[in-house]
Amino acid sequence: MYIDIGIKPFPHTHNTHYEEEMTLGQIAELCYHITSTFLKLQIASTTELTRNTQEAVLRTRSYFLNDIFTQWDPLNSEISFAYNGGKDCQVLLLLYLSALWEHYMLGICKSQYDQAYHNFPLKKLPTVFINSNETFPALESFISMTVNRYHLSLYEDKKYGCSSDMASEFERYLELNPSTKAIVIGVRHTDPFGEKLKTIQMTDSNWPQFIRLQPLLEWNLANVWSFLLYSGEPICPLYRYGYTSLGGVNDTIPNPYLKREVVSDEDKTFKFQFELENSVGYSPENVTKRWETQDPNLIELGEQYLPGWYLLEDFKERAGRIKKC
Ligand code: ATP
User: Fold this and answer.
1) Hey, whose CA ends up nearest to atom 9 of ligand 1?
2) Is residue 307 included in any domain, yes or no?
3) Is the model's pLDDT at 80 over the cut of 90?
4) What is the β-pairing status of strands 79-82 and 200-202?
5) Atom 3 in ligand 1: which residue has the minimum CA distance?
6) Strand 182-184 vs strand 79-82: parallel, antiparallel, or unpaired?
7) 286 in Cβ contact with 237 (< 8 Å)
8) What is the pTM assigned to this prediction?
9) Which of 60, 79, 80, 84 to mutate to test the pocket of ligand 1 (most atoms within 8 A of CB)?
């Protein structure tokens, strides 16, 4: 069950929040506001898909608050976040920040001093990005924008010279950040090799040793879009133009299942209208602002492909990822 611990409503107006310069505490508070309003959407008027996503949000929230933050302190850099600008890690980042705010506020409730005497203790969120692929310019600028927006202290391996495999890149990250004990990863059961993963587990013996925190495992693709589109947060523009999963420039194309010569009536039934219209601060003008781009190449693709969130079948999600020989 979702417990309302009586945190005061978020004071900012949501439809102007992209332009606002927020501190990490403020963006964490906004994420808490997004999560709690999503969970309060009236059951009677929600679709089955939204209800299912509410349950997924509750589970992830509970993993963070009851199973993870009770073992590793998120406020003193024991936990880092694996971030590459993709939709799964963005959803998880919003939920992580929301839980971080709730954890902080629960601490204040137990303290003898009022909230006014406390300051959010983190300025930056420890984050690791293994940038070994040549990335899309649109993804690079999205990552830079979100580094500022979510106050990520992004470690990017490229800046330190590239090595060949993920394991040694993580090893270098741990050498440079020795207080890191656990890393949050936005992997899902439907990802390749994701089927048998657990929410909390040690890395394999041939990897540098850290705890993998994977509280998004049970989410499906539709849950990801349901919450991300509701959030009103800016989304990497590539998804708007037919991409559904992002690898490097040379091995990722828009998803062939979304290519259309003619848009059918079935295509026109948009599954996430409820999420968009109930999103805090909804207005038709600010909806598209969240994901559109000026890049002419992408705009051209947008005429041939439906947006990524029109694809709901998990097994088709990676059809745009070209296998390397
Ligand atoms: P998408 O599938 O749409 O690209 P995504 O990148 O978030 O979204 P995956 O590619 O399935 O999801 O990757 C799973 C998770 O692994 C990510 O959410 C992120 O936490 C982590 N991850 C993947 N690639 C990297 C990377 N290069 N650097 C850091 N973390 C990564």
Assistant:
1) 187
2) yes
3) yes
4) unpaired
5) 245
6) parallel
7) no
8) 0.92
9) 84
Q: What does the pLDDT average to over 30-43?
A: 91
List all residues whose CB is within 6 A of at least one atom of ligand 1.
Answer: 82-84, 86-89, 128-130, 185-187, 191, 245-246
Residue 61 class from Cβ within 10 Å (0-12 exposed, 13-18 middle, 19+ buried)?
buried
Q: Look at residue 55 and tell me whether its pLDDT is greater than 50.
A: yes
Which ranges constitute the DSSP H helices of the chain?
Answer: 24-40, 48-62, 87-110, 137-149, 166-176, 221-231, 265-268, 273-278, 284-289, 296-302
Q: How many domains are there within the chain?
A: 1
Is the residue at 128 inside a domain?
no
% residues pLDDT > 70 (the chain):
90
Q: Starting from the edge strand earliest in sequence, which strands make up the sheet with 152-156, in order?
A: 152-156, 125-129, 79-82, 182-184, 211-213, 200-202
Task: Return the best residue to mutate from 89, 130, 158, 252 for the ligand 1 pocket (most ligand atoms within 8 A of CB).
Answer: 89
Residue whose CA lies nearest to ligand 1 atom number 17: 186
**DSSP-assigned beta bridge partners for residue 200:** 213
Higher pLDDT, 264 or 136: 136
Dump pLDDT digits (tens) for 124-140: 999 999 987 888 999 99
Q: Is residue 133 part of a domain?
A: no
**Is 291 within the bounds of a domain?**
yes
Q: Which residues pair with 129 in a beta bridge?
A: 156
Domain span at residue 257 reads: 232-316
Q: For 81-124, what is each residue's pLDDT tens digit?
A: 999 999 999 999 999 999 999 999 998 887 777 777 678 989 99
- Closest atom of ligand 1 relative to the 131 alpha carbon: 27
